[in-house]
Amino acid sequence: MGQGISWIIETLRGNPDLVIFLTLALGYLVGKFKVGSFSLGAVTGTLLVGLAIGQIGVEISPQVKTIFFTMFLFAVGYSVGPQFVRGVARDGAPQAIFAVVISVLCLLCVWLAARIAGYDAGLAAGLLAGAQTISASIGLATDAINKAGVENSAALLNQIPVAYAVTYIWGTIGTGVILAMLGPKLLRIDLAEECKKYEAELSQGTPEGGMGSAWQKFQIRAFQVVAGLPAVGKTVAQVETLSREKDTRMFVERIRRKGQIIDFAADTVLEGGDVIAISGRTEWLVALQDRAKEVPDDELLNIPVEAVDLVITSKKVNGRTLIDLAGEDFARGVYLDKITRGATSIDVPVLAQTKIYRGDILKVSGRKTHIERIEKAIGYADRPSEMTDMIWVGLFIVVFGVIGAVSFKVGGVPLTLSASGGVLIGGLILGWLRSVYPTFGRLPAPTQWFMNSVGLNVFIAIVGISAGPGFFEGLKAAGLSLFFWGVFATSVPMLLAPLIGK
In 3D, which of 465, 471, 469 has the Cα closest to residue 162? Predict the structure, then answer.
């Protein structure tokens, strides 16, 4: 038994690549465990597993973690590029200023704690990363310490995960407790009531049938136009307008006349005996049976349909509401199921006054001709593809990494974005360009997830594995005071943030 364990340990020491994958597998597993509503998450789980496995002593080239951290930063920039540029160009100035103020406040609290407690740069960096739950700062701090030219850089780097692990738990729980429970009291508001007011504000102008009657799920049925019905003698456009006035929003998709499927336009007049394929909500199509005769017609209903993720790129629709866009010609026959926004694909509520911005992703369905029309008008369909445009991704990483590495002195102090900061900006710019000119720079969502999640966690895994041997000694030296300074660094900015934001 003992020999078997020794063999496994020696094998892992000789194959650090296997150690990384083992750390990732166990780290993601540990991160899934929940206690109530709290979970460690993949990053913290990976760090803790890395620290544990690192006790056996595994040497991993620091270049590996640099490569994966670069991937992570670029993916983050790429995914938020459209929203970042829009926010800066339009109404994002107050939010940007607020973000800068809070970031500086967080940094000042960590600096003050480190000065009073006498922490070195490693513990201070870990305190910032854990107390503010900003794992990416570990990478930036590592880069800064390596380039500082200090003699004890290895010891400082080993201190980072110590402080991070100790302060992260309150950084996560404390932030939620303060903002959810104390924040409303500080602002003297009823949070639930304010949410209801905001929802009511966004719901103004909603049709009686709900937003589902403006943008709804896709279904098609065939009906015969019986002589004497109101639809006889009216154009396709008039019939569709009539249904919209009744908050039903149904569309004529195909027409069979005298046994033949015919081409038609908005001004085509319907005749008695026509069989028409109509798309709309199920309940409205069922109700239509009282006024028209539903008939089986497999050929007529054999209409090519598709569901796609439509990425908004047009300036014409930027900032407009859903209820406004629903009345446009390009929305004819198109059904909206979901809206996502930002790097983490946040679900945006489908409400009447919800505004659509460039870079948003609308999950829409409908006849292929309708999808092609709305795609041409307001964006591009991000159809499933495994291909990444590595030409542009690689060039932007290199070019902006080089630009970021340039340093200049101010008062004798060298200032630089660093290669990492340059890569982040490169991702921002390419992500924005892709949303405006969707002919190049493709980075599919699965690839973004890999670069974002796996990129960061490989970096964190190597940090933990490398710091493992000295972790417990550092923890003993830091003691319980590190946890309380973490509480201070987390709580003070979060207590002041609601008041500053207001």
Answer: 471
